[in-house]
Amino acid sequence: MKIKRYISVFLAFFLVFAVVPCIKAEAAVVTWKANKVNVNSYAEKDAILFTSEFGKDTIPFSAYGDYSWWRVIVCDYDFKEGVYKVIGVNNTTGTGNSKCAVIPKNGFVIADCYSSSFDGLINVHVGDVAYLYKNGNAATVTFGGKGTGTPYAPEGKGFEISSNLNHMGITAATEKGFTLKINNYDKSTGYYIVINDASVSDDGKVLQSAKKLSSDTYEISANLFKNADILTLSLWAKKGDDYSPVTRTKLVKFNETALRTELTEKTVVAFGDSLTAFTGWVKNMLTVIGTDVINSGVGGDTSAMGKARFKKDVLDKDPDICIINFCMNDQAEVVAKGEPNIRTDLYYANMLYFVEELQKIGCEVVLVTPHLPHKAENYYSPGQYGLDYTGKYHTTFCNMIRALAEEKGCKLVDIAKLSESEDMSKFTMMYDGLHCSEYGHSKYLEWISEALLEDAKTAGDMNFDGNVDKKDIESLKSALLAPTEADITPADFNRNGKIDVNDYLYLLRHVEGDGELRWVK
Question: Ranked by mean pLDDT, which of 59-68, 271-280, 298-307 comes out on top?
């Protein structure tokens, strides 16, 4: 079933965007086993359960390598349903990806570094039911169904917080920041918040450590958005010895285009290797185009490996737009053979298959060429894992992408060419040189979103000149008085299914400054 967004319009100064849950078939139960409980450790194969007894608000990160290569899942207890619920999932692994997760007072956090349970965690999602089974210094958690024995439950009854945050969804901020409002504020109750950088991973660097609120409102400064357009905000409260569940949201600063583009109505999938899976550009597309991009990237994948999961990870999502970013692993030279990792004819056949299958369902395809790795000192060293990513095949494979885009009428984002003038020591990560730095992420975001927005219709831009102004009022007025066969669908500004004088008045109020133009569904 297609995942779509609904947009609720508030008369305040922000929008709340929420993802409509996808109706899923009943999944198999995922069982995770901890070998340690509340222990500071950074050993490979460790699977650690953190509870509030750990004595800290978050998993420690400064002294333990940021837990970069761990999968982290946050669970909190739902007192109404009498079960734990997943409120946060962080599968972003790799150098520098902090996992500084809030540990709910009624819940727990699991952190896994390639234990025997690691792979199964990829099937755990926000909203899933979880059951905890504790046994001394070990524990088991099952997701999606019960295990054996009596599941553990926290003491107390819990209580709810009512606020202007969209729990387990997206809350929109403005250029001025965001004002948190607690609706059922009680002076005898203590309210606390933690704010994390979520530009790459939901539980990234802590920007605001646990802070107690002094009133029913709290101003979140625009300064917090300087380095990240997406934050994770966690809010909870304490009343006596009782704690509320954590209210958890993505706090997103949308740009003006994102609030008006018709891409908010689209399902967009990014399909590729680690340049898609482990970077921030996919996540931050939300702030620019106004819709969450489904990340179907898998680290280490070639186009052949992608083909094996193409139906499940792409076609079954029913995408309107698919961004394909396969090439880096395909073109890598196998040093022992002097040949590309995937033969050129097989690569082209795989890419052609992706494009043709997507075009059959009316999906727009965007093809991406990858940047060249940076092999200066302290960056990429050719020959690791028997592969040379900077070998002679990079241009050949990029030329195949360019030719395919022209042949099949696909959009092309030629990052290989666009990045030629970039300082690659700035564009890629030190001691890596293959994957993007934060700056590299921002350039991928800029170039790919530019391509998506190029032909996207904008609410209010009646004459398609890129602006919303009085010329659009005249264009709409003419269309209403003398309808033509021209496509005037974008003129249905109030989204009531028809184009009439109310649309004209709606646009007029916006241009004259007496109202904000918003899609309404």
Answer: 298-307
Closest of 58, 18, 7, 12 to residue 181, by C-alpha: 12
In angstroms, the CA 100 to CA 103 distance is: 9
Nearest 5°: phi and psi at 89?
-130, 130
Q: Worst-scoring range by mean pLDDT, 137-146, 164-173, 184-193, 259-268?
A: 259-268
Helices (H), 213-325: 256-260, 274-277, 280-289, 303-308, 310-313
Closest listed residue to residue 93, CA positions, set 123, 116, 114: 114
CB-neighbour burial class of residue 284 (10 A; exposed 0-12, middle 13-18, buried 19+): buried
Q: What is the pTM of this model?
A: 0.73
Task: List, for residues 120-144, the tens digit of each pLDDT value.
Answer: 998 899 999 999 998 877 899 999 9
Which amino acid is located at 65 in the chain? G
Confidence tier at 23 by pLDDT (50, 70, 90)? very low
Domain extents in the chain: 20-143, 170-253, 256-453, 458-521
Lookup result for tokens 């319009």: 9
Residue 12 has a pLDDT of: 26
256-453 CATH, one of 3.30.70.2190, 3.30.420.40, 3.40.50.1110, 1.10.10.10: 3.40.50.1110
CA angle in degrees (0–180, nearest 5) for 399-405-407: 100
Cβ-based neighbour number of residue 404 at 10 Å: 19
Q: For residues 72 and 59, what is the distance between their CA atoms, to the nearest angstrom?
A: 10
Do residues 226 and 207 make contact, with C-beta atoms less than 8 angstroms apart?
no
